[in-house]
């Protein structure tokens, strides 16, 4: 709730500041009108200056990237937008005219001084009175057939949020620069190749011409003798005259040819210099060669960009260039540009800001407690934990140790932003390379909103493979075809978080081809973090439906929900068994209950639909399972497993679980009764969780990390001290945590401890496998009926 | 059976509302199996690790030292495990058939350069591929493959004589660790089921229902042959199921018909016959079969009789009996958790913990962390401290020594999905069980593990060292 309020305030401030700090390019008068606000209504002048652009109130809801070209036929045109549906209600062509109106190629030396130079990129920030702000990056590609050999392009990042643009300008600039670098390096290679061909042509023509001139001098008469047997000698002098003129013309032409050749060579020289200065990065030589030959032989499939081919005045050269561009794009830019958008795309500046502020609290990830994928508290925040390479031990100053509370309520982040990410600062020393089981999974969700699910269903149709979504990740990996496995390459083997896993299985079922059909933008955006190197920030996916939706009705509907929630919070595996026809309902319940699943380990904590009988091994990783019930409950849950799980039979509304004895949950749920919306309920629950997380924090630092209570010390000290020994439960009772609540707090602390040990083992050499033990709770189950 | 014991037992049985012993066969099915106490507050095993590295049936597990054990499996491998880790320490591969038996022994190498002989613990594994392999425990390397066995290797046993061991299949073989087959004894055609080394360099060999004793050559000078000493009499009526050492001077054998015979290992005569069914009829459910016996304090003997448990003295008195301890036959008995519990594992897939009626409100979980006076006697530890040494002496004088508190069911460990074949106990209070479901489960005290993790984290975060440095800092 706190952070939610904070977010709102920031939102207000930014929007209001947006109004105050306008930068209108429309003219001084308008600027004046706005700057002297607030005017009383009657004082506002009737006259409104007209902008030269059509004043259709253009609106953009989401940020997008626009790539335009200065076409020689129709002038500036928009080529593509990223995402493909970006700026739907926005006149992109008009905007292209606006941003490309400046002929920055006027500086092109070829035209001014008739020498060729490769121009550098330029970038400019355009701010519109229509609340459209753009960072525009101009770059030029070279084409032998284009006017002045240049084809100006520009990429623009368009956003309605000015603050955001400015705060992330640096990052945008560097990203755009690297994209254009890739474009240009490929283009220059191609251009050089074309030039080489042209030069060879010219040299050949010149040689032929010289030959022609020579033979014209000597062999002309004989030719004419043969040809003009019947014409007689009448025209001889006349012919001699024309011959003379042709000769001079030829010589003139030869001279100009020589000049062109020289130009050509100059350009080549310049190019070579330029290209030497380029570093091609991952764009390897070999790649490039194959791509060039492809262009030459025109093996490429037909271009998808119609607008592109429409405005092409030349055939071969242009085609190859545009194809080159396409090819280049395919190779590079999607990755690159999307790397840009994934950072800041479609995310509110407020969220970005919040995230930036809070990111420091998230590290070290191993000591972060999350419940329902909501960050609760970091047990070792701001602790100077440095990993020394030799001992793999962490030095730390205890005095610095302090607790930092951090909330991300759905109101601030989940609902407003559709995309979560972690800033670069995330990879702190504690978690080099942002390993699995840390934060990648924090914002990955099991469910990708309702519609993803629907899409999967829709495409699946009858055979309903979605049911098999809970097969183990290894199986998925094995069955991956080459295309999808490519995206997996960089994924750490153990990092299959719930979300990823689901996405992959969906991918598999839909087939890689159909992926762009469903939600191209999302998909593309999603694939970014996995292909990017570990230094890239971790980007998570949209969460269209916030966690815990439907909690109010769930609490209302099931009187025993308190026991169920207790089971989740205390780490007991909760199984929701239902016949396959209720799969969707179970899915919804799981989405609601996910609010109470602590931890963000790399294990599959939440399995929306499991079709095999449960085994004891499953209990170690699964905490919330939707289970397909075929015929009887006993068939899918063996009695041994049944004893250690909480089983919720969905159809009969029956629950088997140890009863909750404690105060915390009772209090929380009582408070919830006073609120009528899911949002406020969730806020209450999360506030309460934090208060309990604070207890866990106390327990962790005062009891678990207290050396006075260390095991080894106990042995040394004498019997009298033994009597005073503080057990965990006694300690918890002292901080007013008893019975069921003690189990909750202990489980939360256990999660932290396991995360820390797992992290330590992962860093040790060789990395030791991490296996979590299965906790057995012998408490008897009670049967609750709705 | 002394009168006092009889009375005590009768009282116990009355109190528990159990029938008297020796019911007719098959009737036991009707009797309700004892229920586990609600919430099992005294069950310390609240945390398990499931070791599922074997892909086939696990034949047996044997302890190697305080924290390591070996499992052999039909998947042709043997795995060395540690109770501290849920992943294998070492996987021994090489056999081409199911590995069904194993033993551990000391390899002693006399070196003239050294004053002391070089000792190394080695592992022996016997397989249905008719070979025996000798492994180094330190490196996991296969040191030797013994191929001259010619029959399936079903039993391996350290002979207690330096570098000699016995292997049994259809015949009995004597090997040395160099890989030389020293001697082969052809028995009566029955497969050997058990071999037990007893004092004075002798071994007892059980094949079907007979027991024979052989002398192992003790010095290299004499003929390296197994010398038959005696065929023990009387024979068991049915197949021998277990052969265990009871004390320095006694060993015990038990069979399918329920008879338990205690033998004197010096003069090789029968000391006493226990649980002997007088009017024995062959019943193929074998309700009294004794799969395992467990000796305590060299004076007492726990026996798994069918589905029940019994405690005998060497005099032959049955001082405690629980007939329906499990739903199905009990396969193995072991003292676990520092001797505080008797664990009985059964075909019904459960391990039940028996012990003293402790203070129920005090959970046992983590109790090992508290100081606990270690009793001299295992039985006392198991059954509580009610009999301290002074009292014991007094009781002994009054010949009232068998009036012991009776063990009660304290907990049930259920996680296997098949019969639990064997249970081992380790120094760190870990209990290891192996089941027919192909998994090994480590049972740990959750509270103790939690403390260990605390310590580990303190170590990781250098809290301990910080604390050591602290006083100096604060002074300055």
Automatic annotation (TrEMBL), chain A:
Chief location bin: cytoplasm
Keywords, ordered alphabetically: Autophagy, Cytoplasm, Guanine-nucleotide releasing factor
GO cellular component terms given for this protein: cytoplasm; guanyl-nucleotide exchange factor complex
GO molecular function terms attached to this record: GTPase activator activity; guanyl-nucleotide exchange factor activity
Subcellular location: Cytoplasm
Origin: domain of life: Eukaryota
Protein name (Swiss-Prot/TrEMBL): Guanine nucleotide exchange protein SMCR8
Residue ranges of domain UDENN FLCN/SMCR8-type in the record: 55-753
GO biological process: autophagy
Keyword Cytoplasm: yes
PANTHER family the record matches: GUANINE NUCLEOTIDE EXCHANGE PROTEIN SMCR8, SMITH-MAGENIS SYNDROME REGION GENE 8 PROTEIN
Family: Belongs to the SMCR8 family.
Ribonucleoprotein in keyword set: no
UniProt cross-references to InterPro entries, sorted A to Z: FLCN/SMCR8_DENN, Folliculin/SMCR8_longin
TrEMBL record, chain B:
Ranges for the WD repeats: 123-145, 323-354
Pfam entry (one): Beta-prop_WDR41
Region Disordered, annotated ranges: 15-40
Name assigned to this protein: WD repeat-containing protein 41
Superkingdom: Eukaryota
Gene Ontology biological process: regulation of autophagy
A GO term from the CC aspect: lysosomal membrane
InterPro entries: WD40/YVTN_repeat-like_dom_sf, WD40_PAC1, WD40_repeat_dom_sf, WD40_rpt, WDR41
Keyword tRNA processing applies: no
Keywords associated with the record: Repeat, WD repeat
């Amino acid at each position: 709730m706190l952070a939610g309020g904070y977010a709102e305030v920031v939102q207000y401030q930014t929007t209001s500041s947006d109004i105050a700090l306008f930068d209108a390019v429309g003219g001084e008068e308008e600027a004046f009108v706005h700057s002297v606000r607030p005017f009383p209504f009657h004082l506002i002048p009737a006259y409104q200056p007209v902008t030269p652009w059509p004043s259709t109130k253009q609106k953009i809801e989401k940020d997008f990237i626009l790539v335009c070209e200065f076409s020689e036929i129709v002038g500036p045109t928009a080529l593509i937008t990223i995402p493909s549906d970006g700026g739907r209600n926005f006149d992109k062509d008009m905007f292209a005219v606006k941003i490309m109106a400046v002929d920055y190629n006027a500086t092109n030396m070829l035209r001014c001084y008739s020498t060729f130079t490769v121009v550098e990129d330029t970038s400019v920030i355009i701010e519109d009175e229509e609340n459209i702000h753009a960072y525009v990056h101009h770059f030029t590609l070279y084409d032998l057939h284009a006017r002045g050999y240049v084809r100006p392009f520009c990429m623009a990042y368009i956003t309605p949020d000015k603050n955001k643009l400015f705060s992330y300008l640096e990052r945008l600039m560097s990203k755009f620069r690297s994209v254009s670098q890739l474009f240009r390096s490929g283009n220059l290679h191609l251009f050089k190749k074309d030039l080489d061909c042209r030069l060879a042509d010219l040299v050949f023509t010149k040689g032929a011409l010289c030959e022609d001139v020579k033979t014209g001098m000597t062999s002309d008469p004989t030719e004419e003798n043969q040809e003009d047997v019947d014409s007689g000698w009448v025209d001889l002098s006349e012919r001699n005259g024309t011959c003379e003129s042709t000769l001079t013309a030829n010589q003139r032409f030869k001279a100009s040819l020589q000049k062109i050749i020289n130009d050509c060579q100059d350009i080549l020289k310049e190019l070579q210099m330029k290209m030497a200065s380029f570093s091609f990065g991952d764009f390897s030589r070999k790649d490039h060669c194959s791509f060039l030959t492809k262009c030459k032989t025109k093996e490429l499939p037909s271009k998808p960009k119609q607008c592109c081919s429409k405005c092409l005045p030349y055939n071969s050269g242009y085609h190859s260039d545009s194809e080159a561009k396409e090819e280049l794009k395919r190779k590079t830019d999607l990755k690159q540009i999307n790397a840009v958008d994934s950072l800041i795309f479609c995310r509110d500046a407020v969220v970005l800001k919040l995230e930036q502020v809070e990111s420091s609290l998230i590290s070290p990830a191993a000591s972060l407690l999350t419940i329902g994928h909501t960050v609760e508290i970091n047990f070792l925040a701001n602790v100077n934990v440095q990993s020394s390479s030799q001992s793999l031990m962490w030095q730390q100053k205890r005095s610095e140790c302090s607790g930092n509370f951090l909330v991300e309520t759905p109101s601030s982040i989940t609902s407003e932003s559709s995309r979560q990410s972690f800033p670069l600062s995330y990879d702190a020393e504690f978690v080099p390379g942002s390993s699995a089981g840390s934060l990648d999974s924090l914002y990955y969700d099991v469910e990708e909103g309702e519609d993803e699910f629907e899409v999967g269903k829709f495409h699946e149709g009858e055979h309903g493979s979605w049911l098999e979504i809970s097969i183990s990740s290894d199986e998925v990996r094995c069955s991956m075809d080459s295309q999808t496995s490519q995206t997996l390459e960089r994924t750490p083997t153990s990092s299959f978080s719930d979300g990823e896993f689901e996405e992959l299985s969906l991918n598999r079922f839909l087939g890689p081809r159909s992926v762009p059909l469903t939600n191209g933008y999302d998909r593309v955006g999603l694939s970014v973090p996995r292909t990017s190197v570990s230094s890239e920030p971790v980007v998570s996916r949209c969460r269209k439906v916030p966690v815990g939706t439907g909690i109010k009705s769930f609490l209302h509907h099931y009187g025993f929900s308190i026991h169920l929630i207790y089971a989740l919070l205390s780490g007991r595996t909760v199984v929701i068994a239902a016949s396959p026809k209720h799969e969707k309902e179970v899915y919804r319940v799981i989405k609601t209950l996910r609010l109470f699943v602590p931890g963000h380990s790399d294990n599959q904590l939440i399995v929306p639909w499991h079709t095999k009988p449960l085994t004891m091994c499953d209990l170690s990783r699964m905490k919330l399972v939707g289970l397909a019930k075929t015929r009887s409950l006993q068939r899918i849950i063996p009695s041994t497993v049944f004893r250690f799980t909480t089983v919720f039979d969905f159809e009969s509304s029956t629950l088997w679980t140890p009863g909750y004895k404690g105060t915390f949950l009772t209090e929380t749920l009582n408070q919830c009764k006073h609120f009528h919306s899911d949002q406020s309920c969730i806020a209450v629950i999360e506030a309460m969780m934090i208060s309990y997380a604070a207890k866990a924090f106390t327990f962790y630092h005062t009891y678990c990390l207290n050396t006075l209570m260390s095991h080894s010390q106990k042995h040394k000290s004498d019997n009298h001290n033994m009597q005073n020994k503080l057990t965990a439960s006694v300690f918890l009772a002292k901080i007013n945590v008893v019975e069921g609540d003690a189990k909750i707090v202990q489980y939360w602390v256990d999660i932290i401890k396991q995360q820390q040990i797992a992290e330590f083992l992962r860093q040790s050499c060789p990395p030791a496998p991490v296996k979590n033990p299965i906790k057995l709770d012998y408490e008897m189950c009670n049967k609750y009926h709705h | 059976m002394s009168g006092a014991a009889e009375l005590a037992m009768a009282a116990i049985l009355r109190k528990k509302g159990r029938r008297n012993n020796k019911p007719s066969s098959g009737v036991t099915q009707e009797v309700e199996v004892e229920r586990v106490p609600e919430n099992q507050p005294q069950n310390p095993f609240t945390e398990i690790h499931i070791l599922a590295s074997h892909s086939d049936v696990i034949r047996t597990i044997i302890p190697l030292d305080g924290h390591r054990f070996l499992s052999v499996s039909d998947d042709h491998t043997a795995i060395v495990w540690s109770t501290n880790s849920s992943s294998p320490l070492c996987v021994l591969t090489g056999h081409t058939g199911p590995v069904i038996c194993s033993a551990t022994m000391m390899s002693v190498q006399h070196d003239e350069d050294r004053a002391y002989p070089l000792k190394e613990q080695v592992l022996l594994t016997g397989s249905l591929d008719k070979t025996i392999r000798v492994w180094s425990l330190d490196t996991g390397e296969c040191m030797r493959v013994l191929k001259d066995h010619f029959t399936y290797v079903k039993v391996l046993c350290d002979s207690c004589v330096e570098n000699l061991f016995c292997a049994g299949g259809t015949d009995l073989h004597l090997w040395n660790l160099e890989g030389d087959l020293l001697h082969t004894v052809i028995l009566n055609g029955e497969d050997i089921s058990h071999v037990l080394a007893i004092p004075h360099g002798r071994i007892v060999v059980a094949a079907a229902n007979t027991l024979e004793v052989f002398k192992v050559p003790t010095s290299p000078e004499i003929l390296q042959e197994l010398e038959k000493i005696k065929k023990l009499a009387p024979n068991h009526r049915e197949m021998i199921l277990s052969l265990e050492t009871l004390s320095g001077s006694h060993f015990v054998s038990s069979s399918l018909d329920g008879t338990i015979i205690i033998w004197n290992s010096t003069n090789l005569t029968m000391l006493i016959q226990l649980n002997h069914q007088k009017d024995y009829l062959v019943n193929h459910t074998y309700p009294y079969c004794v799969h395992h016996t467990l000796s305590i304090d060299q004076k007492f003997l726990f026996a798994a009789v069918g589905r029940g448990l019994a405690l005998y003295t060497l005099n032959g008195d049955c001082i405690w009996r629980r007939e329906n301890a499990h739903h199905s036959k009990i396969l193995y008995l072991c003292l676990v958790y520092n001797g505080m519990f008797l664990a009985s594992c059964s075909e019904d897939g459960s391990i039940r913990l028996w012990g003293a009626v402790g203070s129920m409100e005090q959970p046992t979980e983590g109790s090992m962390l508290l100081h606990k006076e270690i009793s001299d006697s295992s039985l006392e530890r198991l059954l509580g401290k009610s009999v301290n040494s002074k009292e014991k002496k007094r009781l002994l004088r009054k010949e009232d020594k068998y009036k012991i508190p009776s063990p009660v069911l304290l907990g049930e460990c259920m996680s296997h999905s098949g019969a639990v074949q064997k249970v081992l106990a380790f120094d760190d209070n870990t209990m290891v069980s192996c089941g027919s479901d192909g998994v090994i489960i480590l049972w740990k005290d959750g509270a103790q593990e939690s403390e260990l993790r605390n310590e580990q984290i303190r170590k990781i975060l250098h809290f301990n060292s910080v604390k050591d440095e602290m006083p100096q800092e604060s002074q300055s």
